[in-house]
Amino acid sequence: MEQESPLVREVFPELVDELVHLLEKEGERELAICVWDVRMIGECGCGDDFCQSIRTSDHPGGQPYGPGRRCVPLLPSSGDLILDVVYGRIMYIEILGRPPLRRPVQA
Ligand SMILES: [Zn+2]
Q1: In a domain, 105, yes or no
Q2: Most C-beta atoms within 10 A of its C-beta, which of 24, 35, 60, 82?
Q3: What pLDDT, on the 0 to 100 scale, is given for residue 63?
């Protein structure tokens, strides 16, 4: 059995709180709801110091998403947060130039 990927909000609750807030501010109500349920499939893996992006779909990296793709840039207090959305599904969360993401303390 393949293990189910964790929810991003369980791994990085502060990040998801901020995304929900920023999406609501942009009037992206549906995405603000969707982001609550995205799963952390993997890290970007590019190795750049400024990049902490998260893959939230099993879309293979480095390939175009095809039609239906939409880029949703947000306005965080620091750095860049950009969502890659395909037909309303959040595929990728670009997290660039941000302070290190904090994970909640494990019990
Ligand atoms: Zn990266």
Answers
A1: no
A2: 35
A3: 79
